[in-house]
Amino acid sequence: MIAEPFSTARLSLLPLEPRYAAEMTAVLADPALYAFTGGEPPTVAALGARYERQVAGPGRADEYWLNWVIQAGDELIGFVQSTVTGSTAEIAWVLGSAWQGHGYAKEAAIGLADWLKAQDLRVIAHIHPDHVASAAVARAAGLSRTDEMDDGEYLWT
Predict the structure, then answer these.
(1) How is the chain split into domains, by residue range?
(2) CATH assignment, 6-156
(3) DSSP 3-state assignment of 13?
(4) Measured between alpha carbons, how far is residue 82 from residues 34, 57, 93, 101, 154 in Å?
């Protein structure tokens, strides 16, 4: 299974390539993006190395890493990703702070969930209980919060 390009009404979702690291470093530069996930803004070198690892994949026959950058117009604005194991696809998304509040995260997550469902996969997400914006994105993508917690986050199915 590989990430294939797809589009939504306003966005192009492009399979991840290491060459996107420099532009994405600027997109991911706001420390506020890491409030719920931990970590800090990456350097170009660190993000390039991460993208190399992500493109290479996990090296396990039963798991796939699918990653896309989100493009609006001519600029990259964030990313979506999915780890596929068996028939389950766990999804996540990050949108740069400058592009939040315009429905882009919802549109990208809906597009991703639809793309994965077309591959006959069950879509899930893990969301921090206090991350109201991510909960709204998950809800828009057709997911519902369960009472199951994993590592301090709710499972959404």
Answers:
(1) 6-156
(2) 3.40.630.30
(3) strand
(4) 19, 12, 9, 23, 17
